[in-house]
Design a protein that fits this description.
Elements: H1 45-62, E1 69-74, H2 76-88, E2 94-98, H3 101-113, E3 119-123, E4 140-144, E5 146-147, E6 152-153, E7 168-171, E8 188-192, E9 203-208, H4 210-218, E10 232-233, E11 236-237, H5 252-267, H6 270-291, E12 295-297, E13 309-314, H7 317-320, H8 324-340, E14 356-360, H9 367-384
Parallel strand pairs: 2-3, 2-4, 4-7, 7-8
Antiparallel strand pairs: 1-9, 5-6, 8-9, 10-11, 12-13, 13-14
Helix pairs in contact: 1-5, 5-6, 6-9, 8-9
């Protein structure tokens, strides 16, 4: 690469490509929060109505079946996943799948914190999936739909049988609103507002099938549950949680921001439009990768490539010859150059992933901004290439 390469003229209108918190929707400003019920109780009539609207709009945009329960819970997607693991697991053996850092967190929760016997860990290195054919659906199955830190996703729900006897518990935080969810194959889905729709942090969502709800009424965990995890009492579901009566105090500013994001989703064609925008973004990057000799997708199988957390590895021979520390330092320099130029923020690979780039391609990113970014990636790589 030519280190004297001229800087590109055009810059992305929005240089935010972080994989969490993710970019705000196009055109967003703080004016979107003007209707927020600041200073009001979330337990007031008006507060409950706003929270219930968030649940109802979620159901409508995502196409969640009418008999599935939707609740707003504390502590982002992490809290949502842990709430479900601590409430539901125990009656059956568990298969937990991991191919990136967050899947490994759920492995740790299940094997080290809950210490559940009869747990099988099915793992794969960054860039690959475990062998899905080996999953036993007589067990409860815990997995991420989209590996946020690896850019590897399950291709579809065909590997999940309709006649399973265990529960499927899916961390879908970087998948919902960008990928179709086969609701009949999923008993628990969790996510957070700050991912695909670019909402604000700290709030999680749980979506429960009737089978998952039945488990809440038939299974009494042997371990104590903290208050913020309790969805049932005396084997009776706290239905108020699924009508907007949250366990703890939510931010009404964040609620308003989520409602604004859902309204924007409607304006771009709902779920179909959101998925199409994200697929276009992946296509922009795929076309560039195909003609760029120094980079490849971390996910080798095109059917398993994320269209949200798009992870890239650097394949230049001189880079691959470096030790791990030097590779990480080189990527840090590349990312710092882009940030200094105001063209891309927060695109380093996740800290435990192989050194490389992670570029968010979810629906709130404009394809035109990705197109403007690509020449800058080539420029920055030229600057860090040894003379």
């Amino acid at each position: 690469m030519n280190r004297e390469m001229q800087k590109p003229a055009a810059k992305p209108a929005n240089p935010c490509f972080s994989s969490g918190p993710c970019p705000k929707r196009p055109g967003w400003s703080v004016a979107a929060l003007e209707r927020a019920l600041v200073g009001r109780s979330h337990r007031s009539k008006e507060g409950k109505a706003r929270l219930k609207l968030a649940i109802d709009d979620t159901r409508r945009v995502l196409g969640v079946p009418a008999d599935y329960r939707i609740g707003i819970v504390p502590a982002s997607d992490t809290g949502a996943v842990e709430m479900m693991l601590w409430n539901l697991l125990g009656p059956r053996p568990v298969d937990v799948l991991a191919w990136e850092s967050f899947g490994q967190e759920w492995v740790s929760d299940i094997t080290e914190s809950l210490r559940l016997p009869n747990t099988r860990v099915m793992s794969a290195p960054y860039g690959d999936l475990p062998d899905l054919a080996q999953v036993d659906f007589a067990h409860d199955v815990v997995f991420v739909w989209n590996g946020t830190t690896s850019g590897v996703r399950v291709p579809n729900g065909d590997w999940i049988p309709a006649d399973r006897t265990g529960l499927t518990i899916c961390d879908a935080t970087s998948a919902v609103f960008a990928m179709e969810m086969p609701w009949d194959k999923l008993d628990v889905v969790t996510y957070s507002w700050q991912k695909v729709l670019g909402g604000e942090g700290a709030h999680g969502m749980v979506i429960l099938s009737p089978r998952a709800a039945e488990r809440l009424t038939t299974h009494e965990p042997l371990h104590p549950l903290p208050k913020i995890f309790r969805l049932a009492k005396d084997r009776k579901i706290d239905e108020a949680i699924f009508e907007g009566a949250t366990i703890n105090t939510p931010s009404m500013l964040c609620v308003e921001d989520y409602l604004d994001a859902l309204r924007w989703a409607d304006s771009v064609g709902g779920l179909e439009g959101l998925c199409a925008r994200s697929q276009r973004n992946l296509a922009v990057l795929a076309a560039w990768v195909a003609k760029t000799p120094w980079v490849e997708f971390l996910a080798g199988n095109p059917a398993e490539r994320s269209n949200t957390s798009i992870c890239l590895k650097i394949t230049a021979p001189w880079f691959e010859a470096l030790d791990a520390k030097a590779r990480a330092q080189t990527v840090d320099r590349l990312a710092a150059l882009l940030a200094q130029e105001g063209v891309a923020y927060d695109i380093n690979a996740y800290r435990s992933a192989p050194p490389g780039l992670r570029i968010w391609g979810g629906a709130t990113v404009e394809a035109s901004d990705l197109e403007a970014l690509l020449p800058w990636l080539d420029w920055a790589f030229a600057q860090v290439t040894p003379a």
